[in-house]
Amino acid sequence: MERKERSSLETGGGRKPELPGAEQGVRSTNFVTGLGWFDAIVPSGLPVPASIIISGPSGTGKPFVGLAVAGSWLEQGGRVIFIPIHAAYPSLFTGGLKSMHGLSLQEHPASHFFILFDAELDPGQDNVKVAGSNAIRCNLLNPKVWREALSIASASMEGDGPILVFASALNVLFMSPSYGEQFFLMLLDTIRDTGGWTYLLAISSSILRKKGIILEQAADHLFLMQRVDREKQLRLRAARVRGASFSVDPVPVPFEPELIRQLKGEAVASRRILIPAVGKL
């Protein structure tokens, strides 16, 4: 992917760029990713801390756009909590970061953590399983478990860099007959008040669209993915960026056609497994 020199966050005075909160608690500033195609949309950077939603149909590469942003966050000294609802193992995210962005999470061992969704665990209990040195498994349908998992993740990482929570396919969890509504309301509250963290959420516009629209309207920043089938190309555009100027023109996302086909296949496979499992809970 195209990267420009990481002058990134506008700290001025020739100082080393830092993410918000790196010095003194939580402060609002602009996050410039260093990704040429993304920064073309928001040249002055995204105001953060904030809630950010990337929305679009299944298979349009939303998780990988989020990964690009999360990778920049890590490289600038921040900490990232990954919540890949659609992936049972971290390999999809770790592999994506390595192959697409040249970033190895091994270079940031104390600055990242994985929370893995496990539908086989009882959502009614505080049942959290260790899944590695920087990963846990739990059933996130219960908002209490969600909050506990985030607490464990933040306490497990070192340093004082600001936290980005990057989660994908969260709206699949709305389909739970027992927990879906309360999980949705909890997530809506989080989007409205991030508590000083930055939340980057990739949601599918193909699943429970009405709830997705409510989340989109509540988010600070909203980006939309679209597929141009004739050109075999994915595009990203900004629908809203609060507190900063932005371009409304869609930009091509530099994903190869083979990767696009892979993304679509993974999205289909994920729905086949996840949706029936969540629908029983």
Overview of this protein structure:
- The termini are far apart.
- Helix 2 packs across helix 3 (91-101) and helix 5 runs parallel beside helix 6 (209-218).
- It is globular, with a radius of gyration of 18 Å.
- The protein contains 7 helices and 12 strands.
- A 10-stranded mixed β-sheet has the order 6-7-5-4-8-9-3-10-11-12, sandwiched between helices.
- With 281 residues, it is α/β, with parallel strands linked by helices.
- The chain has a single domain (48-279), classed as P-loop containing nucleotide triphosphate hydrolases (Rossmann fold), CATH 3.40.50.300.
- Helix content is 32%, strand content 22%.
Write a short abstract of this structure.
This protein is α/β, with parallel strands linked by helices and 281 residues long.
What keyword list fits this structure?
281 residues, alpha/beta, Rossmann fold, ten-stranded mixed β-sheet, two-stranded antiparallel sheet, 7 helices, 32% helix, disordered N terminus
What is the 3D form? globular
Q: What class would the helix/strand composition place it in?
A: alpha/beta
CATH fold-level assignment: Rossmann fold
Number of contiguous helices: 7
**Secondary-structure element pattern, one letter each:** EHEEHEHEEEHEHEHEEEH
Task: Give the strand order of the largest sheet, numbering strands 1, 2, ... along the chain.
Answer: 6-7-5-4-8-9-3-10-11-12
Query: CATH superfamily, called what?
Result: P-loop containing nucleotide triphosphate hydrolases
